[in-house]
Each structure stands twice: as C-alpha cells, then as structure tokens.
Amino acid sequence: MLDLNGKRILVTGGTGSFGKQFIRTVLKQYPDIKKLVVFSRDELKQYEMSIEFPESKYPAMRYFLGDIRDPQRLKRAFENIDIVIHAAALKQVPAAEYNPMEFIKTNVMGAENIINAALDSACVTDVVALSTDKAAAPINLYGATKLCSDKLFVAANNIRGYNNKKFSVVRYGNVMGSRGSVIPFFLEKRKTGTLPITHKEMTRFNITLDEGVDMVLYALEHAWGGEIFVPKIPSYKITAVAEAIAPKCEMVDVGIRPGEKLHEDMITETDSLSTIEFSKYYVILPTTPTWDPEDLMKEKKGKRVEMGFKYCSGTNNEWLTPEDLRALIVKHVDSKFTV
C-alpha cells in the first residue's frame, strides 16, 4: 500500500494541469506528507497556485522557480527529495514543428538533466516520468522528443549502480479538459456556431486528470524499474466530441495540422514483443531489464500479449459516446455545462 506520509516529493511542471491535480490529490490523501515542491519556470502561475495552496495552510508546500534545462538548479532542487514526478515538457505539436531545437532542449536534454540530478542525489529513490501516446511510432517532432525522453528514463535503470533508485514512465492519451486540449477549445468555439474539425475520421484516447494521477501513483507504488505503464482507457471520435458539446453547430473540415496523426498509438506492433497485459493496464518491458519479467508476471498476474498486438485509438474496443462525453465534461471540466 502506497504511503507518502513523511515523504518529500518534487513535481517538475508542477503548475500545469497534471501537476495541480497531482498536488490536490496528494494533499488530500496524505495529510502528513513532509514536503511537496512545485518546480516550474513561470512565476505568475506559481503565485496563482500559492493562493490555492498557501504554505500557511499547507506547510508541506514549497515553490521553486527553475528550468529543467538548468542542471545546476535541478541538482540544488533535488537535495533532500525522495520522489520526483517529471511532468515538465513542451507539448504543442505545431510549435514543435516550427521550433524543433527548443523542444529538444526541454524534452530531451531536460530529461537527461532530471536523470543526472536524481542519480547524483543521495535521497531520491523513485522517478516517474510522464509520456504521451505521440511517443509511440512518432511522426512529429514532439512525439520524437518524448520517445527519446522515454528511452532515457528506461535506460537510467542500467546506470544507477547498486543503489535503490527506480526510474519508470507512464504513457497515456489526451487528458480531458487540460490546457490546449480539444474540449475547452470546442466549448469556446461553439459560441461562433461552427466547430473546426481536422478530420471526421480522427480518433484519440481519453483519460481524465484523476485517472492520470492515479496511474502515476500506481506506478510509484508498483514499478520495478524501467517499465512504461500504459493504462487501458477509452477512445473517442472527434465528431463525437463535437456532437457532445454543440450538436447544432456546423462542423467545418479544416484539415489535419502539421505532424498530426489520424489515430494515435500507445503500443505499436513492434512493442508487442515486449508487452505484458494486466487487468487495468499494460507494461512495456525495458530492452535490458534488471529483473526477470517472468517474476513480474507471476507476482502481478500478467500475461504476454500476442505477437502483432497494437493498442491504437482507432481500433480500441472501448468507445465514448456523445452522452458519455457530456457526463464526463460535467464531472471533470465544467459542472455547469449544458448543450
């Protein structure tokens, strides 16, 4: 049973959608947590967050300004930290196509800095890095940088020496209601009477912020080191989202943006050779595990997937209807939402 009471946790990108929800959850479930550090580079967002989570009310809270591109700042921030949740990243696909080096500096070199700071820390024992479905068979620069990041965190387990540090990755799809996602965009656009649709056949995986946080906490408790955890989550069609939010609006086909896929993968056919299925999630094994995968399957009651298996949003066996999406929007995005 995971117990974070008495632990010292640092969240990179802590002012983002995931970071804020992770901190809300941890403060609620573990009132005796010793330290909870928000590490990010935006002072305004930290100030706004400190109003919601003031140190006077939550004595464990700390706010560190810094950039994961700065290894010295990370080294200082990781002092006396037990657990690192790495959520910081540049994420916008079109921006990555136009500014590739900036994404490489943050998503790849920043990941290396996180790993080195964790390896050099005398206290850090666990690192969980957030990934994305776009890292599986990437066709855009953003996905390619996150694939590199995933590889770095998985391989970090090979160079940890004889210490007890564990590095793992959680990969999932579009987070419902997060900044820059399609639902808030459509909620705003419906005022105009038209919704821009990139392609009427487009599909995506869907996960709520709560589910994303739960998956990270699960990985934190159960990781052996080097796994990529992939939750079993539903898909939706972009047209279903449009119908859920604004059934009377006209859908205007604007074409797929640079670097976008029609469907997203979280596990490719090639990954099937090293993927284990469990009841609620999959695990992509590291190329060179430091433990026996057979032991993992026995302890967690898993089984290897069939050769050629792939986990794709377009061929998923679980789908969200417009009615499902409306209920989720009310629960997780806007409690006052009505059609």
Number of distinct helices: 11
The pLDDT mean sits at 95
Query: What's the SSE pattern?
Result: EHEHEHEHHEHEEHEEHEEHEEEEHEEH
Query: Which geometry do the CA atoms define?
Result: globular
Question: How many E strands?
Answer: 17
Radius of gyration: 20 Å
Percent in helix: 25-40%
The share of residues in extended strands comes to 15-25%
Task: Note the main sheet.
Answer: 10 strands, mixed
Give the CA-CA distance, first to last residue: 42 Å
Structural class: alpha/beta
Unreliable runs, pLDDT <50, ≥5 residues? none
How are strands sequenced across the largest beta sheet? Answer: 3-2-1-4-5-6-10-15-14-16
Summary, kept brief:
With 339 residues, this protein is α/β, with parallel strands linked by helices. The protein has helices spanning 17-29, 43-52, 71-77, 93-98, 100-120, 141-155, 182-189, 209-222, 238-245, 293-300, 322-332, and strands at 8-12, 35-40, 61-65, 83-86, 126-130, 166-170, 174-175, 194-197, 203-207, 228-231, 235-237, 250-253, 265-267, 275-277, 281-284, 303-304, 311-312. Helix 1 crosses helix 8 (209-222).
Task: Describe what you observe in this structure.
With 339 residues, this protein is of the alpha/beta class. Helix content is 36%, strand content 19%. The protein has 11 helices and 17 strands. The protein has a 10-stranded mixed beta sheet with strand order 3-2-1-4-5-6-10-15-14-16, with helices on both faces. A 3-stranded mixed beta sheet has the order 7-9-11. Helix 2 links the parallel strand 2 and strand 3. Helix 5 packs parallel to helix 6 and helix 9 packs across helix 11. It is globular and about 60 Å long. It starts with 7 loop residues before the first strand and ends in a 7-residue tail after the last helix.
